[in-house]
Protein: Elongation factor 4
Amino acid sequence: MNQRNIRNFAIIAHIDHGKSTLADQIMALTKTVSTREQRAQLLDDMAVEQAHGVTVKARTVRNYYQAEDGQEYEYNLIDTPGHVDFNYEVAKSLSATEGAILLVDATQGVQAQTIANYRIAKKHHLPLIPVLNKVDLASADIEAALAGLHDLDSAFTPDQVLLISAKTGQGVPAVLEAIRTRLPAPTGDAAAPLKALVFDSLYDPYQGVIAYVRLIDGQLKSPQALNLMAADCHFTSKSIGVMTPNMLPQTSLHAGDVGYVVTGIKDPKQIRVGDTLTSAETPTSQPLPGYEPAKSMVFAGLYPQNNDFPALKAAVQKLNLNDPSFTFVEERSEALGVGFRCGFLGAFHLQIIRERLQDEYGIDVLTTAPNVTYHVTLKNGQHVVVNNPVQFPAFSLIEHVEEPFMKAEITTPDASLNAVLKLAEQHKGTLIDLSNNGELVVAVVKIPLSEIASHFFSELKSVSHGFASLNTTFYDNEVSDLVKVEVDINYAPVDALTFVVHREDAPQMTQQLVIGLKSTVPRQLYPTPVQAIVEGKVLARVDVPPLRKNAAVNGDKHSVSKKAALLRRQSANKRRATKNTIKLPQSVFNTILGI
Ligand SMILES: Nc1nc2c(ncn2[C@@H]2O[C@H](COP(=O)(O)OP(=O)(O)OP(=O)(O)O)[C@@H](O)[C@H]2O)c(=O)[nH]1
Structure:
């Protein structure tokens, strides 16, 4: 196809504003998928996506559009995720496009994630088509939403904004026309040496690594001798093609096209998203700038449930190829054996990775409590960076500890502002700015990342009746009063239960933890003490009751000799048990995730 007739675009929006529904509607209108194939949310086909109703991975689909000018156009659509944890995917998708549709739900107007995505697009200098969705709903407030868009960008005047219902299809043909008339065609040089951006990849058990590429210059054929420039990895393509959304083989791809390359490479480590693909014989002189690696914010240990570490390792490597935004290094825990310490973009990302390991690779993992990165300055002046609570230095050696703080932009209706600010305060947030954007208030709060890493987002949704939205960026590392909590079960420390908390929260959290552990630690023949220890002192303790009645307590009904025999047996068991460790089920480790 002539480059003039190609448009590469993405749809960006706040979570649930209707991106996937619009993508499905575009595929239906361009007859990319036949009605027989049509099923709601074609693009969100990953099991985790259907379970949570959100897009996790960006997708690519080629559509052919018969425009009003009588010509046929190639529309390469890249669907992007909407959750805060996946901003990284959005930036990756956008770098493969020449423009985007900025979709806003008319019942909610501009939200935090709309603003964040808008800024990412502007950073890439991408032209945007503003679109208001869900105008079919009675609760749609078009006037207010138009005003919000105009506040966001003065170029978004009401006559520029398209009104649609992605659900009924109303107004969607005008969006298809706007893509052609308002977004530019790619401008690569088809005669120049091949230069393509690898913007995504996945691992196929039969074909090896499949790379998704955007051709900037030149042509791609198959088989062709190719090179990944940053990795200096030479290979010969097995086949090439486009996504419709299923893989459709092609004989060639040209500058401006988006497609896939079956590389045949079996080692996932060889391919990095952001790398430049070129011809091995006539390489391009200048590689593309590539991506900045994503910064891990939340860390947790992942261990195989069934001790099958090699299987976990293979799965983690393959999954990392498809989602390079999580990091992993091997670690060993006394309680759990060999596993990985992984870094994630946020707590939701951790949950998604865990579920993908289970859905896509059949691997059940044990996870430890998530933590952030601590910067510890020791009394001897040494500086230590801690990503694993077990390595948190002894309290007697510590001068001070710094932890990451985030700048959280919370966009909320005026009515829930008080509840939202109270919640932020409970989580040690301090208000640094408050401004109005129409009906909405934007509160900017400085808050420790550790406080928002697990449940903050859902609490925020609940105090604001679902209306508040959150966008976070790194603020600074600042000094906090933090302590390490160690947990002993039957007097033996369980390293995987170690965590770091703010000193003021330690009494309440350790109490909650031991109460939780009382019902999850498997009962033994003798009472099992569970202790939470902070700086050498036991802060909280429970005894897990024995499987059988305790002779020492319930001895009345027995004769003296029977009682003595029972006591002897129980203490012998106890002596043995301090050496053997009790096998702990996942529920024990979940207790810590729940508090
Ligand atoms: N009434 C109405 N509902 C819509 C419309 N567009 C989308 N929806 C509904 O809104 C919900 C969210 O739509 P999705 O397309 O999944 O939203 P999304 O933006 O892709 O969500 P994420 O991928 O999670 O960011 C779904 O229940 C849709 O059926 C519309 O035009 N009208």
Q: What stands out?
A: Residues 54-58 have pLDDT under 50 and may be disordered. The first strand starts at residue 6 and ends at 13. Residues 13, 15-21, 54-55, 81-82, 133-134, 136-137, 165-167 surround guanosine-5'-triphosphate (CB under 6 Å). Residues 195-279 form a domain with the Elongation Factor Tu (Ef-tu); domain 3 fold (CATH 2.40.30.10).
